[in-house]
Amino acid sequence: MLRLKIFSMIAMRQAFKLLQLPSKGFSSLQMILIIMSLGIIMMKTFSHISTLWQKDYIQYKRYYQQFNQAQSSIEWAITQQWTIPTEHWQCQELLTYQLSACIKVAGLLNGEYVIVKGEFQRFKLFHLATLYNGKLTLQQGHWLDYCPNNKSQYCE
Amino acid sequence: MTDNHFTGFSLIELLVSILLFSIVMLGLVEFQTVLTSTIWQAKKRHTAQTMAFEILDRYPDTQVINLPAQWNFKIMTTRYHQCQIVKVIIWIPSAEEISQQRWFCRL
């Protein structure tokens, strides 16, 4: 009985030693590695968020610039002299200020209305207007930033 | 091999760990400061762009525009035949200025 007790005590001691050995001496380094990994993950996430913010900012900035230029083109168009509009785009440009405006008959309404298109870098703005004596009069509030016709080729 | 074999390394290992930890933490703190600043700047510029656009949309009625504290804006106009080229510049503290311009021909 005593021999068994001594044997079990030795066995427990050995087992305890075995359990202790692998963690001995490396715990601090392991902690550093864990902290480093967590830190890197955190920084990666931050970096990703930062990139998203920057991209978002650039997109908005481009949109505002394109909108302003397209709107400016439409404003400039009303000061220009235009001939009778047809079903094909009739365009005028002011290259110094990168303004480009086109007009055509509004297909969805009766013949007295025209569509004015202001364009800048593939961004298009459309406005409904009337033409009298070669001068355009814009219809208040009737603007769209997409093709007002159900067929996209109508706006190309 | 006895336990005594491992005991001699713990202090050096601890010192190396502290050194590594300090270097890594300094790097991380610096990196996070730069990132936070970048995000903050981008957010401010984004708000300024939106406000400049709003000012142009409201022009010539710009009295109701409320900019954040210490922000300033200026409206510059240039004539081009019948049109006015309106340029809005917004100054943000510790960031670059923001500007947008639009033509107005019906004023």
TrEMBL record, chain A:
Superkingdom to which the source organism belongs: Bacteria
Ranges annotated as spanning the membrane: 21-43
Designated name of the protein: DUF2509 family protein
Keywords recorded for this protein, A-Z: Membrane, Transmembrane, Transmembrane helix
InterPro entries according to UniProt: DUF2509
Automatic annotation (TrEMBL), chain B:
Pfam families: N_methyl (PF07963), T2SSppdC (PF12528)
PROSITE patterns xrefs: PROKAR_NTER_METHYL (PS00409)
Keywords, ordered alphabetically: Membrane, Transmembrane, Transmembrane helix
Source superkingdom: Bacteria
Domain called Prepilin peptidase dependent protein C-like C-terminal: residue spans: 32-106
Transmembrane segments: 6-29
Listed NCBIfam families: IV_pilin_GFxxxE (TIGR02532)
Protein name per the record: Prepilin-type N-terminal cleavage/methylation domain-containing protein
Native source species: Frischella japonica
